[in-house]
Amino acid sequence: MNKIIISPSILSADFSNLERDIKRVEQAGADWIHVDVMDGHFVPNITIGAPVVKSIRKVTKMPFDVHLMIENPEKYIKDFVDAGSELITIHYEAVKNVKDIIDQIKIFGIKAGVSIKPKTPVNVLEDFISDLDLVLIMTVEPGFGGQKFMNDCLPKISEVKNLLEEYNLSKTVIEVDGGIDDKTCKLAVEAGANALVAGSYIYNSPDIKVAVKSLK
Question: How does pLDDT run across 100-157, given as a tens digit for each residue?
Fold first, then answer.
């Protein structure tokens, strides 16, 4: 996959103007919308839920890349599917029955991803790697936007790429989230990433179109 998918995180958008800020990144050439869902338990922050996803579904046809940083995600999968999600990613560290939840997501006919935190080794993915549409590698500790990219996570991106090659999974997306800007994006892509999540870099830029283009 040569194309680099850009998935702006609305965590850094103006929540009083979500429609406007979604339209801005859409017009700038972004590919997906990244929706960070936090519950204040798995991560020390609370963001939005399925009702907000449902409301913003009306303003764009861009795929919703929904990142569930929550405990017990299995209770809410249907809600986020019904709200219009095309891809739901759960955290390996938040659940005991990862495979079961992947299957639960796929029953609804949408794509499933698993995310790992900076200190979680890549080999935990081996038992269910063939069932994934996406692997999300966190390059910051999840919970807040605007953090600095952790360079020591770069080898993990290459490890995931090697794992996917080992299992002949050329269509599985390697997404990187955390501290992505016009410099760190190059490091992530060189390591094997083909999807980039960026929030503050895009939304704090004086020119969103230029910011998105710089990542592409």
Answer: 999 999 999 999 999 999 999 999 999 999 999 999 999 998 766 667 899 999 999 9
Active site residue 177: yes
Residue among 21, 39, 65, 177 flagged as catalytic: 177
Sheet holding 87-91, edge to edge: 5-8, 195-198, 173-177, 134-138, 111-116, 87-91, 64-69, 33-38
Q: How many residues are given for the chain?
A: 216
d(CA 45, CA 2): 35
Domain extents in the chain = 5-215
Contacts of 28 (CB under 8 A, 6+ apart): 202, 208, 209, 211, 212, 213
What would the two tokens of residue 27 be?
């017009």
Q: Residue 214's CB: how many other CB atoms inside 10 A?
A: 18
Q: Residue 39 carries which DSSP code?
A: B
* Integer Cα distance of 159 and 66 in angstroms: 24
Q: Which of 31, 36, 65, 133 is catalytic?
A: 36
The pLDDT, as a whole number, for residue 2 is 66
CATH of domain 5-215: 3.20.20.70
Say if residues 179 and 148 touch (Cβ distance below 8 Å): yes
Distance between first and last Cα of the chain = 13
pTM, rounded to two decimals? 0.94
